Amino acid sequence: MSVKDKNIIIGISGGIAAYKIPMLVRLLRKAGANVQVIMTESAHDFVTPVTLATLSGRPVLTDFVKDDTGTWNNHVSLGLWADLMVFAPVTANTLAKMAHGQADNFLLAVYMSAKCPVMIAPAMDLDMYAHPATKANLKKLQTYGYDIIPATEGELASGLTGYGRMEEPENIFAHINDFFKKKSDLTGKKVLVTAGPTYESIDPVRFIGNHSSGKMGIAIAEEAAERGAEVVLVLGPTHLQTSHPNIKTINVQNAAQMYEAVHKEFDNADITVMAAAVADFTPEQTATEKIKKSGDTMSLKLKATKDILAALGQKKNGRQILIGFAMETENEKANALKKLHKKNLDFIVLNSLREKNAGFKHDTNKVSILTKTGDIIDYPLKNKKDVAADIFDLVLASNK
Ligand code: CTP
Hints:
It contains 13 helices and 21 strands. The protein folds into 2 domains: about 5-180, Flavin prenyltransferase-like (Rossmann fold); about 190-400, CoaB-like (Rossmann fold), CATH 3.40.50. About 35% of the residues lie in helices and about 25% in strands. It has helices at about 20-30, 50-55, 75-80, 90-100, 105-115, 125-130, 130-145, 170-185, 215-225, 255-265, 310-315, 330-340, 385-400, and strands spanning about 5-10, 35-40, 85-90, 120, 145-150, 150-155, 160-165, 190-195, 200, 205-210, 230-235, 245-250, 270-275, 280-285, 300-305, 320-330, 345-350, 365, 365-370, 375-380, 380-385. The two termini are about 20 Å apart. α1 runs parallel beside α2 (about 50-55), α1 (about 20-30) runs parallel beside α8 (about 170-185) and α3 (about 75-80) crosses α5 (about 105-115). The site of cytidine-5'-triphosphate has 14 residues, from α11 and β16.
């Protein structure tokens, strides 16, 4: 699939980088996209609507009401018309409003009405970009499933040099192009993903858990959703969440609940990725009241949980693809390969615990993927989102 015939809204807010947007509009139109430009009032100071209307072939919109005729610009139908909304440049102000759902202008009303994917290319002065509020807003917008095109480093309008420059229009165009190109390659597929830790209750206040944050599994779910799959995410207890429209999240607490949820969904899944850090053991009994202190030691009797992945391996049919994770600290590849065969997997993703900046809680990960046909691919340290892309790229390439 390509950008041809796609309906794209370009939302421009009031930053100097707005002067570069006519180039983006031109590239999109040349590639065959339908482009509707919406500007905030302050964006008019940086680029003229006449230029943008001429290049896009459509009147530029800013207000709820058309001045001359008094007719209403319908933000709801425009929001639904769009296949993609691209905010470029986005100021700190618009970013904050997007994160908090404040719809005090036409552009933001369309944004709140839209159901399509959203891309954000921020542009602001370096201190504004580095401000904790901006960082928090960007993080929040990422949890909505939006694609952030980070600002780059360079000379800024203030004369200062640093991060805050909007990505160049050619690169934003390439990003949009890639999005539509890759968007389709999981369309029609159903993907089941597990993520996060499990909490095994000892009593009403205590549990046995682990350090998994759920970041890797959520990145996998988001990547699949962005590539067009219908995703079910079975998510253990974590403060992280995702709200991509293609993802249905089922929240669970413990290994037994995860087992139930996964088994209910498994028959429908074409690709299943077990990224959750499932507890191997759970208390034999959960006390109904808080356990009181008595003596200097205490013993807990644990029993093994059911191995969800192994059970899926037994159950899977020839067209289903099953992917597990392995976290090893010694003889890593040999142990991962053993696990792959024992659990009847198609792929196993080996996490490195030794690597700096990889594994639990980090935004990056360093993995090797082992296939049932005996291949081992070692990847460098990457963002978890890029690791997720590698996993699906390999799965798709192996099934051609
Ligand atoms: N897993 C599972 N159910 C469990 C335990 C683990 O589905 N009760 C899955 C994990 O989601 C992961 C894979 O099994 O995809 C590997 O988990 P790991 O803990 O590394 O391996 P184990 O099989 O538990 O073996 P060991 O702890 O002995 O290394």
